[in-house]
Amino acid sequence: MNNPLITVIVPIYHVEKYLHRCIDSIIGQTYKNLEIILVDDGSGDACASICDEYAKKDSRIVVIHKENGGLSDARNKGIEAAKGEYLAFVDSDDYIHRDMFKILMDTLLQTDSDVSMCSYKYVYDGEPDETDVSFGTDHQVDIMDGHKAQNRYYSGDKKLELTVAWNKLYKKELFTELRYPKGKIFEDEFTTYKALYKCSNICFVDLPLYYYLQRKDSIIGVMNGHRDSKVVAAYLQRIDFYRDNNEEALWRKGVMHCLHMMCYFNLNCARSVSDDGGIKKCYRKEFLSAVNSYEKASKGFSARERFEIVLYKLNAGLYYRIWRMTKRN
């Protein structure tokens, strides 16, 4: 009961330079009861053979070779094959502290949580690994429910930790019907909040147990203004989710967050040589439809919020200009 099986899902695509370090950090965990699913997403480099070699050495490793379908599709294949009572995700260019799953599992069981999550640390090429750093047993643990987690996202407190897939240990039942959207970038923004919303308890361990590699050729590293803006589709979906679950206060927060992020991305798009119309053309209609879809909740906007929305409806260009001046000042 105190040593349940964790399935660790690693989606892999063109990361032969980093893959050994990633897998070594997982098989070297002090928590040993692991099923490690390596999903080779049609890599054209040496990743496929690296995965197969590890599977020969460690019976806990399962390798799935598939045609390239993207990160979401690879994660979904892992979820469908998972045998563990708990799920975890590790991106194949990152690596984890040797005690990550032990600490997350111990804390999850002690707090009777549905999800356990930790902090992270940015790492860069050429830096020494830190998997042997000792954290001891004295660390802060914060407990929240799914509703509080949604509010903390909008407060900006632990926003990345609450969004990404990879710093968490989940009860597998949270993914009974939930899957990552195939073909989307920022797939975590479409998915994680839905899993957290279901939770009675979520525990946050304030330790940087996940090492998040920053590299220029990653999906995030090559983003520009217009491609960044595609995350707005996730914000719009989130607004609809709150409406469908009668979460009036969260719906209003979601609307204002979406509006302000559209301003931010519109500014980035205007600076991008690849801009093809930017946010003003891409999401204006969808945003206004979302705002008008929940009359009951819309009555709770503050006077300032109502002014912002009305101005945006009347003249989006003027709204953007005022927003820029406000931010500049």
UniProtKB/TrEMBL annotation:
Q: Which InterPro entries match?
A: Glyco_trans_2-like, Nucleotide-diphossugar_trans
- Judging by the UniProt lineage, the source's domain of life is Bacteria
GO MF annotation list: glycosyltransferase activity
Q: Which SUPFAM superfamilies match?
A: Nucleotide-diphospho-sugar transferases
Q: Name one Pfam family in it.
A: Glycos_transf_2
Q: Where is the Glycosyltransferase 2-like domain?
A: 7-175
Alphabetized UniProt keyword annotations: Glycosyltransferase, Transferase
What PANTHER family does the entry give? GLYCOSYLTRANSFERASE (PTHR22916), GLYCOSYLTRANSFERASE EPSH-RELATED (PTHR22916:SF51)
Name of the protein described by the UniProt record: Glycosyl transferase family 2
Q: Which organism is it from?
A: Butyrivibrio fibrisolvens DSM 3071
